[in-house]
Amino acid sequence: MSFTMKEGGFGVGDYVAFGVLCASSCAGGVWYSAVGSRSKAVVDLKDYLLGGKAMSTFPVAMSLIASYVSGVTILGTPAEIYNYGSEYWLVVVGVTLSCLIVATVYLPVFCTLRLSSSYEVLFLPMVVYVPALAFNQLTGFNVFAVGGVMVLICGLYTVLGGLRAVVWTDSVQTGVMFIGVLLVAAAGTLAVGGVGNVVSIADESGRLEISNWSFSPYERQTGWGAIFGGFLYWTCFNSVNQTMVQRYIALPSKRKAITALFIFCIGAILAISLCVWCGLAAWGAWVQGGCDPSGSPLVGDQLLPAFVTYVAQVQHLPGLSGVFLAGVFGAGLSSLSAVLNACALVAVEDLLHGWLRLRLPPVVEGVLARSVTALLAVISLLMLIVIQKLGGVLGVATALSAIAASSTCGIFTLGMSCWWVGPRGAAAGAAAGALLAGAVSLGSQAAAAEGLRALPRNFTEACAANATFTPEQTIDPTTIFPLFRLSYHWIAPLGLLATIIVGMIVGWLFDKPDPSKMDAELFTPVVWKLLPKEAHENAGMTRQALPVKEAESPAPSARLILEQLPDKDNAALSACPAVFAFINSGGRGVVWAWRGGLSVEATPTGAAHSGGKPHGSSVALLTRRQQPTSALSPG
């Protein structure tokens, strides 16, 4: 039986499997919405949008994975491997490096200040369209009708249940997604004849090789492009993307946020690897089928649904298509709910609190957030009509998301690391990064429309002998402006670097920030040793001015010690009449304590101590704030 592209192929077993899995994945969110909405758990804004900042680590980690693994990942990655080989798999190295950078550079600032919002791009139509497209390919149902059902289900539990419902539902949907992709990978491997056949067929056509280590940014897939391009792109995504930051802050401590990030890293690597293997298995099926249909490879996002239909028929697995579609549908639902909830948070925190400077009663703000969520759900459905009318919009939308992510990440990086950059530098850098990345993205899309495209790898001798197709017309790459020929891996890094470089230069020339107004807690620990002295004297000034309760804004657990105290500060500390508390934490982490206007931090190595400098510990005198004598902020 040949591997062909056709619409339909859904049977009774598929509908049953799809219905059961989708119902189970959504039941938790709907149940929590119905039960939790009658309790205080989702009444006020903090509980609705941030889960009370007391969520459990594993569900949040699964929700992070759900935010990353969308229908685009499940459908797009196999097609990329199918056509261009396995170099893309090296992006997992970039994802790993990005998680390390986020944990050391960005998380300490967000977790110290406990801020709720970074930013979010309205990317809703994309996450609705891709699962609807897969459903249409497998069942023949109208894309708009499928999108409407998807928005209705997702909007129901997101509007009523808030972040708690979203996170717990994401956890189940992520599990369903992994089950679906894993079953397709396993059944597809068996359909091709086993792991050995998949590997040998892929190796014959060069699709198993990871040998292109060219530094040329014009080649679609290279080892360096996948590693460094993936590293910078996913750093932009993982560091300041609103859906990610919202989940970091929903956890009660930085330690738990880092743990969730670690689990996310493992899950992302597993998801990418499974999708890569599905692409290799699909290639093996196409070659074994005589290189049909039409003598040319299947391409595009419809590849994997077609492969699933083929595998289900060959292996006589009537429910496989339903399980797979439930996984894609769940991935789309989780991504949609994440973006809906994040956009509601941005609307309230950035627009209501930040721009309009209005603070309403918590219940009113909770109702407002729900209204924003419902409105955005309707907008996403209406925008689906536009997406259906515009061909190639997926590539354009993906490029635009990279523009937003890179320029915004650049602004945050400037603010967290470059103390000499002020509003002028940040604005100039953001404009330069967005304009450059935007021009490259749109220019490359226009060039591709004219015929500039990377050709797939060779189809092997067997396929060449059976081929009856003529390769698509292409144009001479040398006639295209060089920047418009860049691989998509380098668009986000280009925008990020442009934002940072221009921002640093303009800030150095035109911004003159007052050191007396700098706060060390606003900067990443990586640059603390380089900050002006005044920044350390003002450490905590911004956090204390935030309009939140002290219990919601704990003192930082990140290390603020620059070096051992000079002798004069030791003397000042010993002579200070205030008594500070030294709390032993078993040699782990740090302790921040102040009393009577004295701020210190200690790296504990001994037992609890009070008065003077603890023996065997490093203590830094950070500031002499005028605080109530009874105040003590635990580490």
From TrEMBL:
Segments crossing the lipid bilayer: 15-35, 56-76, 88-109, 121-138, 144-163, 175-202, 222-240, 261-286, 323-347, 367-387, 393-414, 426-448, 490-510
Segments of this protein annotated with the region Disordered: 604-635
Biased composition (Polar residues): 624-635
Single GO BP term: sodium ion transport
GO molecular function terms attached to this record: symporter activity
Keyword list, A-Z: Cell membrane, Ion transport, Membrane, Sodium, Sodium transport, Transmembrane, Transmembrane helix, Transport
CDD domains: SLC5sbd_NIS-SMVT
PANTHER family: GH19970P-RELATED (PTHR42985:SF41), SODIUM-COUPLED MONOCARBOXYLATE TRANSPORTER (PTHR42985)
Family the entry assigns: Belongs to the sodium:solute symporter (SSF) (TC 2.A.21) family.
Protein name per Swiss-Prot or TrEMBL: (African queen) hypothetical protein
